């Protein structure tokens, strides 16, 4: 049996659609028919610039997947054919979402609550991991705020400053669920941010004291906002360690936003075990989504939008249905 997949044959090669085999689920795995895959800047960075190390080619990318279970592997008891699930696939093993079917371990997925669409579910995995791993996972991976991912733990007496507040990680994790938050974002997203619990929204466009800020400078600004003993989580995997860190007790945590890498696997299992209930109860919310037409054929044209910053993609996740591929 074969399927259609969007493939990068060699580093920096253009995307092509080709027929590839449909994988068989092994023990403890499911075969999933992909109904939605969200696009991310990392997908464009890998194809255009070969931006991550150790990518094996030919490569099938796609970090955020939602779909329907088609086949059950040996030993799987808690899932059945027809279940709606979402997950962060192992794209390095060519199990990514830019294809019509993939396999996934039952330890790294969750069921989609009835009120959540496939597209909404696909908007969650990578961005949620980006937010919660550096905040909740145990040291040295993260700040250790909730290493057991106990859904009853609350930090509403604490405060958080979110730089890039309308970005997908803030929106999907609903940081206000664990702390009072003041995101920095453009004013056009202020109503949306307050609807998911922000206490204050600081418009990043009105006061132009700095004409251009490098990514490292943003982290330095965030660090400067910390009180003694404060902690900063960043989406950059290798944040700088300032010279005064030990004296002030301030700490920084970066993240490789996947529950599939060895350091994150055990925390990831806890996260996937609890995330469905958090979604069902409205404690966390999916991102707003924008449908990209033409299935896998629409991806190559949509990914360059990430080069435009907020002018290209802002406040939404771009989502494709691979089953629409002609």
Main sheet overview: 7 strands, mixed
CATH topology of the largest domain: Quinone Oxidoreductase, Chain A, domain 1
Secondary-structure element sequence? Answer: EEEHEEEEHHEHEHEHEHEHEHE
End-to-end distance: 17 Å
Secondary-structure-based class equals alpha/beta
Shape: globular
CATH superfamily of the largest domain, by name, is: Medium-chain alcohol dehydrogenases, catalytic domain
CATH architecture assignment of the largest domain: Alpha-Beta Complex
Mean pLDDT: 83
Detail the poorly predicted runs: 166-173, 176-186, 204-214
Count the DSSP helices.
9
Strand content: 15-25%
Radius of gyration: 20 Å
The portion of residues assigned to helices is: 10-25%
What number of structural domains do the residues give? 2
Beta strand count = 14
CATH class of the largest domain: Alpha Beta
Question: Would you kindly provide a brief summary of this structure?
Answer:
By secondary structure, this protein is an alpha/beta fold.
């Amino acid at each position: 049996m074969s399927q259609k997949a969007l493939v990068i044959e060699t580093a920096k090669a253009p995307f092509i659609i080709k027929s590839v085999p449909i994988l068989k689920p092994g023990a403890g795995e499911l075969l999933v028919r992909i109904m939605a895959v969200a696009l991310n800047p990392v997908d464009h960075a890998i194809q255009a610039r070969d931006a991550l190390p150790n990518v094996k080619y030919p490569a099938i990318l796609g970090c955020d997947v939602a779909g329907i279970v088609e086949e059950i592997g040996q030993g799987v008891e808690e899932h059945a054919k027809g279940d709606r699930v979402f997950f962060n696939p192992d794209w390095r093993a060519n199990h990514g979402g830019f294809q019509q079917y993939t396999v996934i371990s039952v330890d790294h997925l969750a069921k989609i609550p009835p009120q959540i669409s496939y597209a909404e579910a696909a908007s969650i995995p990578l961005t949620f991991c980006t937010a919660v791993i550096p905040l909740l996972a145990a040291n040295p991976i993260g700040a250790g705020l909730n290493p057991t991912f106990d859904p009853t733990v609350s930090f509403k007496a604490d405060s958080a400053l979110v730089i890039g507040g309308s970005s997908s990680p803030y929106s999907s994790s609903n940081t206000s669920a664990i702390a009072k938050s003041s995101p920095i974002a453009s004013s056009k997203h202020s109503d949306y941010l307050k609807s998911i619990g922000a206490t204050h929204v600081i418009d990043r466009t009105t006061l132009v004291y700095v004409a251009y800020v490098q990514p490292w400078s943003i982290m330095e600004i965030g660090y400067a906002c910390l009180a003694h003993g404060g902690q900063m989580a960043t989406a950059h995997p290798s944040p700088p360690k300032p010279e005064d860190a030990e004296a002030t007790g301030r700490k920084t945590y970066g993240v490789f936003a996947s529950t599939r890498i060895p350091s994150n696997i055990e925390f990831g299992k806890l996260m996937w075990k609890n995330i469905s209930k958090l979604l069902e109860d409205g404690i966390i919310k999916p991102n707003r989504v924008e449908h990209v037409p033409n299935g896998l054929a629409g991806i190559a044209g949509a990914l360059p939008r990430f080069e435009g910053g907020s002018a290209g993609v802002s406040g939404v996740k771009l989502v494709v249905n691979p089953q629409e591929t002609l």
